[in-house]
């Protein structure tokens, strides 16, 4: 009889302890629904609106103004006049661009800028609109981010008297060029983001034999190796018969840029090596006369900083 | 006969603990946590209104947890930096506190009243756990439990690194304020 009582007491004590242990876990479990992933948009596929040369899917944050300075030096290799006398291109300013980009809201960025110009058409004023149509979500219901982009540029260059030159403008409308692209990207992990960009360039006035319209596909990627440092790559593959001919004559090489991105908290810096010094797509794709293999590469840097405009 | 009485008693006893559990547990999924960092160059504040908080007045267990991405900043760039560079929300999406109320007077918390107590427990932020002893105020009234507390967290204690360039913009210690209006679990 006594033995049985002990058994019961032991059993009830065990069950009692079990109940108590259940309590805290139960509390946590009651709240778990709160921490399950909802459809949040993925943040920061890239850290800024550009890669080495062209655009990324990122927009400027709402009510922020992004001031951007882009600079590219001259070619390093002897084939392209890079010698010790010009410090392998560092004395030459191939292209400079100053730009202001404004985030109207989180889905729309508008911008203006001015470049020296990398190709034969210089003194380029550009303006663009960038619109985020689709956002990748954390639960993968939307696997991609899709951004639409269109830009127009106009040159203020004096019209050339040489009729064969592509700057022999007669009508002001000939000074305009346009770039339209669909930027499609996916953040695969916190470290790796990849982007593909079909692009259409239209130039109102071109040299005889050249094409007013050309298409290309851009490929770009970013690999973060610390929270604030990354490698960025961008490459363009053009579809242009004229450029295929130019390539055979060693006058066109597909644009390729390889760079290092540094986030200092206030600024994003890009230190790049590129064979193409264009900073707007209308200036990158049509002209790309120097090759990586012959050290037709240039050192370039981009600095940008965002300022909050409306409190 | 005794066996039957004992076994019935045992079962009733177990049931009674089950019954009391439902009334002693209060929870909410809309508690609020504010965070505030004061530094020479900049004051940073953010708040989340999607915090889950629960308390069991009998066992004195307290839990609160939230998805760190629910912290809203006025400045969206700050919010991006917070998630991407500091709290690393893709690696550590949740912050959680689990603790027990320490009450020297051993008061009956199920009775209406205002209680100034302490909670001792583990706070897990950015994947790093640390024990805290937090003063907490509980107001038990008319079927609701309102819990509030304010405490400081050293960001370095949870492995959150602040780069030297922005050291003047972000405080080493941030102030967290928790406010939870909890209702009985249904």
Overview of the molecule:
The complex is a heterodimer of chains A (311) and B (186). Chain A is mainly β. Chain A is built from 3 helices and 12 strands. A 12-stranded antiparallel beta barrel of chain A has the order 1-2-3-4-5-6-7-8-9-10-11-12. The model of chain A has no long low-confidence stretch (mean pLDDT 90). Chain B is of the alpha+beta class. Chain B is built from 2 helices and 9 strands; from the N terminus they run H-E-E-E-E-H-E-E-E-E-E. In chain B, strands 1-2-3-5-6-7-8-9 form an 8-stranded antiparallel barrel. Chain B starts with a helix and ends with a strand. The interface between A and B is large, with 39 and 51 residues.
Oligomer: heterodimer
Number of strands of chain B: 9
Helix content of chain B: 10-25%
Task: Give me the number of helical elements of chain B.
Answer: 2
- Class per helix and strand makeup of chain A: mainly beta
- Report the average pLDDT across residues of chain B: 86
What spatial form of chain B do the alpha-carbon principal axes imply?
A: elongated
Radius of gyration of chain A: 27 Å
SS class of chain B:
alpha+beta
Indicate the overall shape of chain A.
elongated
Unreliable spans of chain A:
none
DSSP strand content of chain B = over 45%
Q: Largest protein interface?
A: A-B, 39 and 51 residues
